[in-house]
């Protein structure tokens, strides 16, 4: 089932996600619905707060980036095969060089800005079978994971922009929260009191 994506301005996007228990109701169905929602919106990642649930769950499928000719063959191959669910993820460390990359977000449509992040992240998390993992990711894959991880911490990519950039975006962000935007996927707007 395709779920509406929560738009910028909704308080759920600012909540730190709660851990999931192994007996979380219909987790398999929720994960399936989130994949369907993400693909319907042409996303490469989706976090539970973006569908209105303040829990520590996000998913990433970077296949769409695999054809980027600016990337090394090794990075293309890593991105091509990467599809994963992260439950109760916690950041162990972020290291490496900082680099800027143009980011967007399904909850903040039609806004893209350069965001600076470290190039390496190490996470401890559970997969959908509640098996524990500790893994390190680098490059563009790390960036997508960092973006989705931020969602379960109540952080949006626009928070990482300069105060000048934030002032420039204020009107556009206000319009998004009021539903004054055209998108080709289902959204729920906090100030418009409607979904479409």
Supply the helix-strand structural class: alpha+beta
CATH class: Alpha Beta
Radius of gyration: 16 Å
User: Remind me, CATH topology?
Assistant: Peptide Deformylase
Summed up, the domain count is 1
Shape: globular
Low-confidence stretches: none
Strand content: 25-35%
What name goes with the CATH superfamily? Peptide deformylase
Overall helicity:
25-40%
How would you sum up the major sheet? 5 strands, antiparallel
Number of strands: 8
The quaternary state of the protein chains shown equals single chain
Q: State the CATH architecture.
A: Alpha-Beta Complex
Determine the mean pLDDT.
94
Can you give a write-up of this model?
Belongs to the polypeptide deformylase family. Its EC number is 3.5.1.88. Removes the formyl group from the N-terminal Met of newly synthesized proteins. Requires at least a dipeptide for an efficient rate of reaction. N-terminal L-methionine is a prerequisite for activity but the enzyme has broad specificity at other positions. This protein is α+β, with helices and mostly antiparallel strands and 196 residues long. The protein has one domain: Peptide deformylase (Peptide Deformylase, Alpha-Beta Complex). Helices cover 26% and strands 33% of the residues. The protein contains four helices and eight strands. It has a five-stranded antiparallel β-sheet with strand order 2-3-4-5-6, sandwiched between helices. A hairpin with a 2-residue loop joins strand 4 (83-105) and strand 5 (108-126). The chain starts with a strand and ends with a strand. The mean pLDDT is 94.
């Amino acid at each position: 089932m395709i779920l509406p994506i929560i738009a910028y301005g909704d308080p759920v996007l600012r909540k730190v996600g709660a851990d999931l228990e192994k007996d979380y109701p219909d987790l398999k169905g929720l994960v399936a619905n989130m994949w369907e929602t993400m693909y319907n919106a042409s996303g490469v990642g989706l976090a539970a707060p973006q569908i209105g649930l303040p829990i520590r769950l996000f998913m990433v499928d970077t296949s769409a980036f695999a054809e980027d000719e600016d990337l090394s063959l090794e990075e293309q191959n890593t991105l091509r095969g990467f599809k994963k669910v992260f439950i109760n993820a916690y950041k162990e460390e972020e290291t490496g060089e900082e680099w800027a990359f143009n980011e967007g977000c399904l909850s903040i449509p039609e806004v893209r800005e350069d965001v600076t992040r470290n190039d390496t992240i190490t996470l401890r998390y559970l997969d959908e079978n509640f098996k524990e993992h500790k893994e390190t990711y680098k490059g563009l894959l790390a960036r997508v994971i960092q973006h989705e991880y931020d969602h379960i911490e109540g952080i949006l990519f626009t928070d990482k922009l300069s105060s000048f950039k934030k002032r420039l975006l204020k009107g556009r962000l206000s319009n998004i929260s009021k539903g004054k935007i055209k998108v080709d996927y289902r959204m729920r707007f906090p100030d418009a009191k409607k979904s479409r």
